[in-house]
């Protein structure tokens, strides 16, 4: 057993019995490298990563390979979900070397922590056009001993490129015209048959899908709306969705959404939950509406059944593998379905879920509804009973690994989604789940005014990152809108202040990933990413939160802060706008969003109607008395039961019924 035995990360614990002398990232590892003049071999992965497991089985569990690693390097293992800062800097260095990214990420560092060469997965023996891992190890060690000048040149070139990438750029901010041009380009990038961005593999890309939907709403663009709905429908029908247990896999390896990469991540499902709930609330076609509702309810059922920790928060992910095989927990053979359901039910299920004797992937069946008939109501009820029976059988299988660490930022995404979806789908229990998770993260994961990032088994990785505070600020505002409780608004302001004090960089005006008070001498630089990855970037989350806070309070200070931040951030995003979708979605909210104020003795009904408006373009003022004196709705407040809808400095006529709230919203958007 190596030094990882004391780690809290499930991913690191998976490697605790390797013959490799792994260490966690920290000063102790780099001190050893300096003392012995050996380079650091840094291996980064995560618990649900299939190819991480492959490389571990091939190389890290092999005593002969481990002996070479131990002799030539100080070996450091990092969970990218626990240390996204280390992952970001290292992945950026890999891109500087001209290599595509991915995990496992294998990087070689100097004893001071500077990257000088790397790659991703290396097979144990040469294949796939890649050198064998031991060959790589011996050559890097030789270069370190014999060609120090070449190592130094690589190190310096990477360091300069990383610094240049973070240099502040002065560019004007963006507006509606730029958003509309981008939206039109985006429509053409979508697959007109299967939805989603063209090609394979296909990722859900929720922030980009939201950008497309916002463009459709802003311009009344019918094709954009069709493309957004098409992606949601094809994903809901595809094998990327778990039709028995609920939830969506990380991505599809094919362009049809049939074959998933089977891991399930909290962050994907959080972002998809609110999009499916919104689509279900607006869909007129009954078949699609049922499909979207079932998809949303399935995500929450999966969260409740498999992902909720004893503390009420949400675990990070489910592995793709079980019993050493990718997808084994999820796929089916027709004979097993017959054994569970009997005939004729098995035949009916097979017809509707694409199950055949030969299978639809590597001899087995991934249940899906891509090309199968839609059931009538009576058949749909029978199929629901069959799915429950098959799920019960599936629960007897060896389960994939659960990464049960609690990540503050991913929980923030899930909390906001549960609240929004709970409102749209009349599911108050979902909001209670969100409140419980929020209470745990805000309480158990907070120290000295700053959130931690990862919690497991009573141990906290602290301080957290900008994404933790921005995602939880956003979640607090969503809960404040839904419940009217001032404590959530106060907490949002506290996290805003923490972001301003600890994470905002004076030279750029944007958020760095790490806190100013955090010390990590081995990290090559303080990372300041702006682009989205699979999760929204901290700057995008913060921008949305600033806009919503300004719409809630109407205070000039809040409005000016949001406008200044958006101008600086959208200017920096001009070069690659689609990669900054969360930021541009916040800009759309600022430019076109409505602030809704309900007053009077029977205001609750109007407030509920306001909350049921699409969350993409509305913010609900929970406490009218908290409005700033110069809020445009302030002069319209009265003791009468009414709602006022404002966009910028203009406001609607009073709405006195829930139906009028929806009418006034349409009128304001069409002006």
Molecular structure report:
- Helix content is 50%, strand content 10%.
- The chain has 671 residues and is an alpha+beta fold.
- Strand 10 (321-322) and strand 11 (325-326) form a beta hairpin.
- The protein is globular.
- The chain starts with 9 loop residues before the first helix and ends with a helix.
**From the helix content, strand content and strand pairing, which structural class follows?**
alpha+beta
Rg over CA atoms, rounded to whole Å, is 26 Å
Sheet with most strands: strand arrangement: 1-3-2-4-5
Largest sheet: number of strands, sense, barrel closure: 5 strands, mixed
Which keywords apply here?
alpha+beta; 4-stranded mixed β-sheet; 10% strand; globular
Annotate the secondary structure layout.
Layout: H1 10-14, E1 22-24, H2 27-36, E2 40-45, H3 50-60, H4 63-72, E3 74-79, H5 84-96, E4 105-109, E5 115-119, H6 133-146, H7 148-165, H8 176-189, H9 206-219, H10 222-237, E6 251-252, E7 260-261, E8 264-265, H11 266-282, H12 286-307, E9 317-318, E10 321-322, E11 325-326, H13 334-341, H14 345-353, H15 377-394, E12 402-403, E13 406-407, H16 408-424, H17 428-444, E14 446-447, E15 450-451, E16 454-456, E17 459-461, H18 466-483, H19 486-503, H20 538-553, H21 556-572, H22 581-592, E18 594-599, H23 603-611, E19 618-621, E20 642-647, E21 650-651, H24 658-670
Parallel strand pairs: 1-3, 2-3, 18-19
Antiparallel strand pairs: 2-4, 4-5, 6-7, 8-9, 9-12, 10-11, 13-16, 14-15, 16-17, 18-20, 20-21
Brief characterization of the structure:
The chain has 671 residues and is an alpha+beta fold. It contains 24 helices and 21 strands.
